[in-house]
## 1
Amino acid sequence: MKSAKVLVALFLYGCYMVRECLQHDNPEPVKTALLQTWAEKLYFELWNCGEYITNRKSLQSKYNKEAKLEGRNGHILVANISSVIKSMMDKKQQSLKRILESVEQVAVSAHNDAPPGDEYKVRNAKPNKATPHTNILLNDLKENSHFYHTPVNATYSSVHIPTYVYDRASDVIKALKWSENLDVAFRKNYEIDPRLSWQYFGSTTGFMRQFPAMEWPDKPDNTEDLYDCRMRPWYVEAAASPKDILILVDNSGSMMGQSKIIARHVINTLLDTLSVNDYVNVLVFSNVTNEVVPCFKNLLVQATLANIRELKLGVENIADPNNISDFSIALTMAFETLEMYRERNMGAMCNQAIMLVTDGVPENFYELFKSHNWKNGTMGMPVRVFTYLIGREVPEIRDMKWMACANHGYFVHLSTVEEVREQVVHYLPVMARPLVLHQSHHPVIWTPLYADVTDPKMTDYLWEKEECQQQYHDTISYKETKDQFFYPKNKAKRDRDRKKKELNQNLNVNRQKKHNLITSLAMPAFDKKTEMNITVRRLINDNYWVWETRETKVAHLLGVVGTDVPEADLREAMSPHILGVNNYAFIVTNNGFIVTHPDLRPVFGDILKPNYNSIDVTEVELVDSDNIARVFDRSILTLRDYIINQTTGDREITVKYHYDDMRRATTAERHYYYSIVEGTPFTVVVALQEKHFGYRVKIPDRFQNLNTTRSSLLDYFKDDEWRIHPDWLYCRYAYDDGDDTSFKTPEDELRHFLKRIAKTDNTWNKWPPPRFYSESYDCDKDLMLSLIYDANMTKGIFTEAKNDTEKKKKTEFEKRFGVTLAFVATHSGLTRWMDYEDKPKTPLNSDDHENQQPHFIDENVYSIEEVWYRRAVEYNMVNDESYVYSVPFENENIKSTLVTASQAVFVTSKENKKKGAAAVVGYQFRHSALQELFLNITKQCYSETGCTPAKDTCQSIERDCYILDNNGYIIASENVMDTGLFFGNVRGPIMKMMVKEKIYNNITIFDYQGVCFKRENEDDSNSSSFLYTPIHHLKQLIGWLIGRVLWLAAHSNFQWMMSQAQAIFEDVPDYQEDEESVYSADTLANFKIEGEKALKYVRINRTRPKSCDRVVNLYTLTSKIPEKVEHKSMCARPYELRKIMNTNLILLVVNGRCPETTKAENFDTEPKEVDYEEFNNSLNCHKAFYSLPRRRPKTACIRTHPDEHEIYDKMCGKGTITTVTPITLSIVFFLCLIL
């Protein structure tokens, strides 16, 4: 009996398995009629909700009633922008010349003045509290928006003195005294041009005088101030014509210990004095000579920040000193490399120099210099030689000094680390001698984009600090959770959070503006005194020395004068409101580098990227081609050639571009118009999508003169539920130096000017006025009139009277969808909204954002630049009735998730059917409401479709249902946790099938501005071993101590530690309970890791940021979904889909009975690093080998002067006696760590 029961059970089980197998082989097809019905019902609900909430039709009707269109002419636009920028730059240049004349005149008059006495005080921007008797306090500093909201005093200047410069030295204090007279020129310039930014004079003695006066910003974590104006781009470019530099560093056996440390600092400091128009390489030699970066072999590389960083890493990894140095081979190799670059017109094509760093030479190598550098006599030598003698106890300096003096160079003897930065920069005034001797020619230089006072060397330090904070957080977390710390769920969450943070940091998603990006123009200032008396010793009768005074030629560089042009001013000059949505302008330098561009992403989180200011135009304008990384299409290379050679013209290119934090991409045909900015190395480019965005809205005539609307202006802006674009110029006072001319918000400023406009007929003042006063102001008439017109059109748009039926319907949809907010944004930068919930939002005049959920308007004030605005306008080209829906990506707080829907409002011409974007309307509603709607509709069967609820609806285990957007992201799913995920991450095989069948198109995007991370224990591309200096051993010791402290902290049972941890983590959820419901006790036991082994897993991998290229595959829905392809079996295409009408969404149903649909497959949208195997995965090596052409600056190359040989040959260097300040000693260790 028992056996019979077993047999029956086995039989029944066998039948069940056969049935299951048959079902897998013959799954029921998805019923297309049912799918179509679901899609139609979803459309009906979404469409009606959008129409009732946004009142789109009413706004559309208003604009079409009287607004007109005007075409965008690219040639006119680019010409106007170039003209505006040229006018701006001419004013800056005129101001600069006034400062220059003042510097040279004041310096001449002060030649015979004695240095001031001990009673002399300076207005120090960073006064030393220990010596208040030497400084004057900066008083009456007022915050000024024109200077980045920095407190300033515009009646006098202040000075910045580097930490290692002794401010009471006679030459320094004398220059400080006479340069006070520059305040007259500074003030006059500011009166003539109130839009002038910082003005400054950088002295060769090291200080910088800056106007207006300000207190120097504090450094993070009280780190030492390393700023030295002589190492900033504006100074080094103006001080001398462009240069090719070859640095030779001795690595013989005697260069051990302190000598090696000093040598490294010399090299790093020399590298810091170079700019992008210079070329450089570093060779290390003993018995053989090699490049410190092997892939830079026989090259001079452009001195970009990325290449300088690569060279510094190479110097850091120089092998241990050994053998005897062969100077002849090293010098010969250097001369031959420089000669090759001269003959081939490569590199800087101007000055050339060899920098020799050693602890001694065996001879002066007279014959070698004669054959390589004096071929045309000593008058025409092409290469200068600068020598740096390292060490305290050196046997002989005569040969080293002769080598420098005989080759128009300079000799420096360095015996301590702290004197390096001050002494190394002496080579700049020497290279400037030909410029000084010409006297009449003061070339104007323009820098590339850079951050004003930020030292790029801080990148590694700040990243290390961030990793330390992460390490602290992980250690505390382990302390609290112990075993649960290693549970897979918790580890996965930490990994996911870090990936998300890295992505956000790479893209700078928070629009941070911590760094002030600028370009500067500068000019060298010369000492007008060309002769001076010197006292020298002369040998008489072979054994008797006498002192005598002789007159000699001199050529002294006083310093460099400069002023800044903020990148924000350049963007403002491009009139983005005229260019319109999805059109833009940008600026390119003679090197092909971007100065301003909407896709320029210079920061990683809060840290400047290693190559932030050398982004090439080909790296932001991506051609729509199938080329692999850095194989640039001929069309963009041709455009680049036209741009850098400063021609005027236009070209059309089909490009691809990304947006929405590099999660979406599309392609478009862009028309590029380019024009030179006369007198600068800059070219302006305007990029238009003329096919779709070639027209702009023109306001009706009745608004042109405000006669009929002047009295009602303020009525358009009565409430507080509106914002304007914070970066656009509507109206602004010339000076921001009083309570009546400064405002807390752009909205306050606009209200103020609306009141003025309402009271006076003379609204639009001529700009610039003949003379500026405190009440002088500038208004952009076109933008202001457009704003007033849009305010009139959108006033009360969400509360317009409707009949009772419509009001009832609106209320019904509002409640059913959980609508939280409706909004409208216009082409003039106006954004209005209306809240449907009492959700806390940041008040208009409040800076308190803490402990508040961000309100929509706190993060969406940029109108035409917002993603939802751009997407709505763009999708209008696909379907002009569509709403575009989106949800936050990978949002973990599902309960509070909101859906954003937006639709564009276009003005359509009756004559030619052309269209221009006027506004975008939209609303936000609860995702939970959409989720409920989706589930309710897709669980229904309808008799006419012939469906069976148990098999055909989305409640069935045989069907998996999704709503996807046009880029493949999940808007709704049966599993609510899928919301915001890329569909390929959830159902990779299905996504792959849809791409194969052209339902989604793949767009490959290369991110040439990426930052990746190299683990510190990974091998460098440089095969040489690490240089273990005492400092390095000290760093290792500190690292070991930190590790032990962390381990002790994690396992300590001290009562105070436990009590603090209890207070901090008393609300931490119980991880164990959650995990135990998933894993068995035996499995959980495997997660228990203790002691040193636990510390190993808690400790994060130390990394160093590096520039890298990244690639990401993004997807976009085909505008016309192809018809279903017939397949032999149902599982060959195990899904069906329908577009949800008038949306950017599709309804997708997957046949769950097809087993291959659940296979795991890597199909995501995460950026991945591009490997350049040919160059040992080094991006900088790849770029150096395949370098793009450039045009050298148009400024004259002045590298020689016939009178230079008359300068007394002993004035080419000396041994140094260092005066060390107490502060200098305190920063030596810090310098060793970061350089």
Note: The chain has 36 helices and 45 strands.
## 2
Amino acid sequence: MNSFRVGGTTFGGSTFGGGVSLPGLGKASTSTGINVPKVGSVSANAGIDVSKGLSGITGGIELKKDNGNVFTSGASKKSAEDVSHQAISSYFIGPQAENLTYFKENVNVILDRLKDARVNYFPEDGEFIDDGIQISETFQKRTKDVAKSVDKLSELLGAHSIPFWSPRYQAHMCMDMNMPALLGYFATMIYNPNNVAFEASPLSTVAEVEVGQQLCEMLGYKASGEDQKQDEPVGWSHITCDGTVANLESIWVARNLKYYPLSIRKALDGPLDFISETFTVRTARNEEKLYKHLSTWELLNLRPQTILDIPDRLNRDYNISSKFLEDIMNEYGIQSRGKESLDRDFGIEKPAQYLLSNTKHYSWPKGGGEHHFEIRKPLFRLVHHFPDITTAIAGIGSDNMVGVTVDNGARVDVSELEKHLEERLSNEQPVYAVVAIIGSTEEGAVDPLGQILAQRRRFQARGLSYVVHADAAWGGYFASMLPRDFIPGSRFSDNLPVGLGSASGFVPDSPLRVETQEDIWWMRQADSITVDPHKAGYIPYPAGSLSYRDGRMRYLITWTSPYLSQGSTTSIGIYGLEGSKPGASAVSTYMANQCIGLNPEGYGALLGEATFSSSRISAQWAAMTDSSMPFVVVPFNMLPSELASDATPESIEAEKQWIRDNILRSSNLDIVSSSSTSPGGDSALSLLRKLGSDLNINAFAINFRNRDGTLNTDTLEANYLMRRVVERFSVDSPSDDPTKIPLYLTSTEFSPELYGACAENFKKRLGLAGGGQDLFVLRNVVMSPFPTERDFVSELAGIFMNVVAEEVKVCQMRNEVTKGLHEFVVHGADDVFLVHKPSFHVANHRRQTILGVDMPADIKDLYCTLKTQFPEELWTFSTTEEVDLSEVINGSAHMVGYLKSKMTGPMLPSFQLQAKHTWVDRPLTGPSLSIEYPTTRMPFYLYGSDISSLDSPSQQLYMDHALLCSPNIQLSASIASLSFPSSPKRSATDRPLVLFLDDVREGTMQPFPTSNATLASLPNFFFAKDKEYSISIWQDPVGGSQDGEEIWRAWEGLGKGGSEEGLVGRGKAVLGEDVWVDSEQLNFDPYKPVDNTAAWKKEFSKIGSA
């Protein structure tokens, strides 16, 4: 689309009007001015053959263009010798549907039992749908229509669903669901029980109770009926729809637990006044005190068990009945009174807070209620908004969800947590809970729970008490891997037994690293735990869960008194946030737990094989690349050699080479039985355990080398590479064909705001400059238990490297500054100014430049005549010869080109232009950009014939929007009039000027639509001819700076606190005739694939309807 004019404003064309020369891609030859090869989705077969350069690193596997999508590494026949793997193989339908026959047989059994159930229920009722109905034309037609729709739907699902069942899928926490779970869900779903009430779900409610017992036992809680010490609390667990709801419920419980003592204290001045002189309680500091004499601080810090014991003690010592206490809580409890009322009554001015890692799951800010907390933004998000209902649930405010910095392994920094707790103790600000994440969603990191619990004991002794919650949505099922006799301090780390099978097809179980085992073991001391069976339990959605160490905690979120013994099976649905809930989820979870087993031989072995596979893949990320390759792959988790105090580049490379020689090129059996040791003294197996994350998630990042061999230092460009790579390894559009993607990965972002020094350290290891930009990070989740012998792992690694090598070439091209064609907006008459049309995505154009130029006299005369006759025309200058803009700016080169307007078209012949003054020249690379848009104003560069005297009536002034952040919009205009209530100060001629639109808040409008047509259709677009603005003009305090963050901070600070330092004047400005608006060329990425979803949608519409 060419440029067009609406209401006195010229909107730019849809692509580069002046032609952009992309290195290596040929000259502009189409109407768009850009000629680039097709850059849509490319399978692994396409593109670059780098097998010669990579074969040594990939374990000697020859990578060919024609084998990228060929599964050559299925289980060997000798896998049958691996007894453990035999059992695991029976749990799944299989990557190639190997066990579908057995699945069908079980489905037939389910359907036969369904028929029996219906036929045997009052058979004397007779048939309601007889043969006559079934042979009718209408019945037959509708039956066939449904059959066709089912067939079409099944075809579409097979063609367009993500192949979670394949070992090639390593993106999100998804894998083939286990058959016991699938069959349990299917069998129960047909009966549609609702576990909200026993009368609607007698069997599935019992199943949920049983699942609760199973989970409690696995997590180390005392299950109901176990013969243990009487003073040990009895655990309780129930199924939720997911981990988010479980976390929200835990917040609700922690809030109510914190306020329960306050409600009892209020009641002591009312209906419980008859016990006020005798009822005592032990404080967090273990001091026995009369309850009514407790301070508010002491009431807010009673230990959880002390609080939960209160109802039992009132019943035992004072014969207070359940009904009487329920009535009291209906009057005084937080459920009825509300948090604000109790805060007011007790003079609580410092709200209680949650403390948890900055890498928290997105559900935690939701639980806080208000959405002040920023969520990380991976390319493929699990988007959750903050509904108002969360405020009703907890209402504690997400400002009181306090993030704690993480260490370089993305685990919560316990020393920083200590500082937070110390501060709250000294300020007497209560703490609801500290949350330990047992397997973070993005990094698989396990917080040091043992230390967190010990920390709580120390603070309780000093008077600060709180709940400890373990968010083990991902990590909970890994508790099944713990050896039965495991206790902290034991060392179950010997080499695995050999002789379980041949080298081909053998997949050993791998234990977790000892520190991870210990922190998982300590979950038994956490007050509550979130676990998602639909993650590491391989169970269908929806299946989350919440477990309580002391089952009495569940009564805190009902209007039922906490001292009821264990409740009844019939009442399980009254606990938690949900109303109706599928009984099928409970039965599905029960079947999987029961058939596979929550023990080292069951789920432990399954996850153990996946853990070993994850370690083998992490070894690839650790040692995949060397200095001879055009890119680097850096795992997030540091290698042992990197963690050593005497680490050097040479020692790190030596360890990588050892990994290539002894792990990447070795069979699983060789790794298990190897006796050779790494430079750091580790065997192959022990080193594998140290690679990668705590729990089967490998985060890693890529950077590329420029054509000259130097590493790219721009974080945004490294992010660009990784986005392109993950787009090749994922489905991000309905038009993508899931069956053509040979490997699935996913991504996240590490924000310096959340990750702090951890993110900066990762950038440094990648060779990137520091700064405030988020770092895009790739990640793979390994859940498949199927063989990961070296040919298959190396084949996937080869596919990955081929794709990265292809995308590196794109990044090298877009970052290579060479001569190119350029286009400028022309302003002025007596003095002529050229405003460059920039692009964030083409190196030749990645700069904001304004030049004063000398124009040949004859050309200038003609231009001025036409401009006078047609003042509404906007003029551009387009080069016809490629030029390096840097050489033009420094005066060593000139430009050759022609003037053009919509009315005249190109005014040939071409002529030469020489730059005589550079008004603005600022790169638009990552380090030159801010991470934030201007907030309260909109900044422009001010330039013209003589800016030292702004109130001159003959002054020619122009303004160009300062591009501080990407994406953005180019706004350039002449100023028709500039007025000041008092004479502006004369500015120093060597100090550039910045003009702010004081009544335009840029931050509220960004990002603008990237379609000029959309902008032009806006009924009252703010930037147009004759628009008047309140403005202020300032001397640029950082003139010449190329640091985007420095510029943003300096400009944001101008005028703060009433300061007028650097102010030239305040007044009014009116835009003139020359108004240029463009958001397309500036943001257009010539390498970005264009999606076409129409065909897919049309295919979906073929599913029949009545």
Note: Residues 14-73, 369-392, 493-505, 561-567 have pLDDT under 50 and may be disordered.
## 3
Amino acid sequence: MQFLSESVPWLDNFIFAMAPLGIVTAVVSAIRVCGSPGLRAFIGRAQEGGGIAEAELCSSTSRDVCELYHNGAIVRVFGRPKILEIVHDPGETDFYTGLPKPTYGIYTFREYVENTVAGRQEWREGGKPSRTAITDPEIRGVHLVPAQDKTGGQDGFAPKPNLSFNIGIKKRPTYVYWLAAGLGFLAQMSVIVFGALVTHRWRWGKGDGPPPAWAFPMMTSGTILLSCGMFFCAFLVERSTKERIFHKTSRKPYPSARSSSEESSRPSPRTYVIQPGNQSIGDQTYDAFAFSDASSPLTDYVTSWKALPQAGDHLKAWLATGTTAIGFSLQFTGLRAMHSAVSVVLLAGILMMSIIGSALRTARLKKEQNLLDRRPDQVEGHELDWLAMQLGRGNSWSVKPQIKSSGSLLGSMNRRYDADTASQVEILEIHERFQNDFTLAISAFRYKQTTNPGELASRNAISIAENRWLRNNDGRQSNDLAVKLFYYRTRLAEMTGQSLRNVPTSSGEWDDRLVPLRQQVRQLKRAIESSTQALFNHANFRPGWSDVKSFAWSFDVDVSLSGAWADADLKRLHIFTRQTDLNSSRQSASWEVDQNSLEAALGLWVWSIVSNPLTESTDAMELKSSWASQVPVARIISFGVTLSDIGIAEREFRSWAEYLPGSMSTKRVKTAPRPANQGAHTIWMAEGFPSTLRPLTGSQADKYPAAELLRLCGWMSLELAQQQDDSTPALALTVSTKQSIPSLCAQDLYQGFLCQAATMLESIGGTTTLGPGSCDFYLTNDVVTKLVESVKDSGLGTQEDAYLMVIPALARQCRLPLINEVLPEIYKSANRERLAGQFTNAESILKQAWALSQGPQTRSLEPRNVHLYTIGQELAELYRNAYRTSLLGRNIQRIKRIELEDFGRAGIVWLEENKSQPWPVTELDQLIDRYTDFRRRWSAESPRSISTAAQVLETLARDDRAWCLFEISRTRDVALSDADGRPILSWAAQKGWREIVNASLEIGCEVNAEDNAGRTALSYAAQSGQDGIVRTLLENQAFPGARDAIGRTPLSYASEKEHIEVMKTLMDEPDVSVRAGDNSGRSPLHWAAAGGANSAIDLLLERRAAMNDKDSRGMTPVMTAWSEGQFSTADHLVERGARVEEV
């Protein structure tokens, strides 16, 4: 039965029919394959499925029958296991041919012999003339149209590889089969000849009598019929399949296209077979298997598939069965009547042919030819990654971070046009500066304004531009090992991926059980696509970047031939993220990223970590395994040089993460001497005192159990602080995690993507709000929340993991929303706590804001100084109010008054200590000095006394701000005004003394109180340009349209003095009119013209101020400017459209 399943040419059938053994098996086999239901019922196989008979008897493979390697042998199994057979042409190095689906030199055998020039020249199909060779050097590697199937079979090729024929059995020379057939014929004829001699010449009879006359003819006819019947049975079994046999020619591919030296140096194509492990068929589990013909190239290739049933098969089965049965009966009867010596000769012939038949099949695949024989468990799930390494002859492949040093700035932004599609596609590029080098961070492709995306040529233009761009970037290093490995693995993912449809392949779809990391790949794909959509829908992009149709984000790779990581030049690779519909708008567009590319990057990286020699061990059976997954893992949030750096980074992270990780810790890491160690592939060990993490070396691997080591991830978003020298360890803020290695690497790839994508943004956009958190408060932003939800919903990580990825990535590119966006809410929250008597809570909120204002992102921006000043002022006011409450508070026990005074004193002392923090601010220093003076005066005042409003007015009159602060903190009486009727609030607003304004309002000063001239505090604040105080007064119900005794409004005063920010604040109020005139009919535009305030004029005109309105004297604004001597302003008004004929 095994001989039948391995028979292809008719010569095998002939050998099988000579002096045959297993007659019943042959008959039963023919019936099982071609017999009618009646015949199959006769042998008890009426309900047998065709797949079982095919698996046991035929040479074919089909969708239900396959051949697998199992413990040293090729076995035929019934089911749908997965196995991949490829041909790799290492001489094909042009990966950027512009084809829709580049092959990178990796094909199925069918694709190779039917679709490529090299395959058509290298292989010739048996029984057919050699196909025309295409040797034009201009079309080397061109993919031809697949040859049409003329065999009538299923696509003319077996759906699964025939391992037995191609690698399982060693082929004998043809003459050996002819010799075996000749010996078989002689053995069969010798029985007949010997029977003739015994019967007619030697007259040997059975017992004492001569042999019957009918015995020899019956034996002879039976033998002939039996041989014919056996041949017919074997032929029916063999005919139930169809085969195509290819023979390798002696010609090299492309002989006319290369010189003889090039021919000899060009590596020959190789055939590889890879079988994933952990496949269960029935009660058997199959380990991983890999084969390569590198040491002994294949000379023949056979593909066999099940033929469709033919009319007359049942009749032929009856004929073969009947012939064999009759022949056997006649032979048996004849032999019974003849001398026993004839039976002995027949037995000798049968034994001889059995030995010859088995000898033809004894040279089989050796167990040592399984390249994965010593690592079945280690490689399980990583077979494709291992194969890619074998194709490229690499040993390790690791994604490495581009760690930006502190203080590095974003580099240049380029804009150019693709050479092939210059009229349609524009290319945008951003380069980042790392130390003294500029590296490409991200590139994007968009249509020019005149391009119609709906046209087919326009849709193809993006693809053409992308391919040309790749050729100019990755293509320059196409011979580089990192590039080869990446594209080899991409191709293997395509050939076995679940997204592949309508493409003939011998592998089928490998599910998550065979390639477990595909689950993480899909999660990563969903996270990237969802995050891209969130950014393009809600974030603020750089000019020109919001309408890109695709962009290529990059990552760096380090490879090794020996397994030891070295400080070599990193190779930068790119992955495209594209719009699925190029006609869609920015808001409605959906995005996709190539899953095969993600699988290539993730798979090679994870396999390099798992196969790291440092984590390999060998058991008693000499089988390799890996303990890489047993090493504890921590994710780095930030690097720093001092504990202060780490503290600032931790507070910044905690201000965004509502759900805080509970295992944050600071570790000392020795990173500077070996940049190659910066990555998830490195294992760290703790040594010395204080404990410092250093990379684990080979000599130390056996000294530490896995639980005492550490793997660090999260390098993609780090900003490494400048170290004084190589001996200075860095401090790392880390969080322990229990994620698997594939999940960690996938999260790092996402973090790298987000770092690159953030360079396209002008700002993160969205709305930033304040919420109560496990700390004093936490910040929320629409876009940040959507990014976190993208990660969480994709399954790539928990909400905690999402924050650990998103926040450091955005912080690295300074794209986190600034603290100033929520400062008003922070102040309100702190004020609510203070009014409720919770001074400590209020202080905690403000101190958190103080810390955030000094974070890495905020301190690089100019407005930070203003924000730090206002936070400092809020803190100082909190401490001053604690002093005031301790003196003037009602129903407060004495012990509480003492606590409040101590609280205020300690707080102001803390501010004094922070005066000398880095980046000192002069205004802040002055502010702290005032409150320091306040603290000293309060301490010197004994016993405590209460001040009056007159004393406060006196300090205002002599312009003593510090003393005024002291006096107003001790008074409840604010009703008194000076001789001009101006209250304390009016004077404080004009002077810009914000703390005095707040104190006045808090103790009951009327916000709309008027002086003798009818002016309010808002009027004076607007005239002096105090925008912050204007906002404070408006928040406290100040009337923005209030008119004084001469009819002027706050807007007219601000316009005259050209206080633009005050004007904007006032004009945003609904009660303010830009055309409101005073008692003399002058509008704000008149007063701006009189004051020579050109910027104020432009702003008023933007808000629809009337250019040619006249006052009570008939003067227009341009006439007012002339009359006041503001000639340049008059010219400006004329340029803006003022009528001059009336001047």
Note: The chain is about 45% helix and 15% strand.
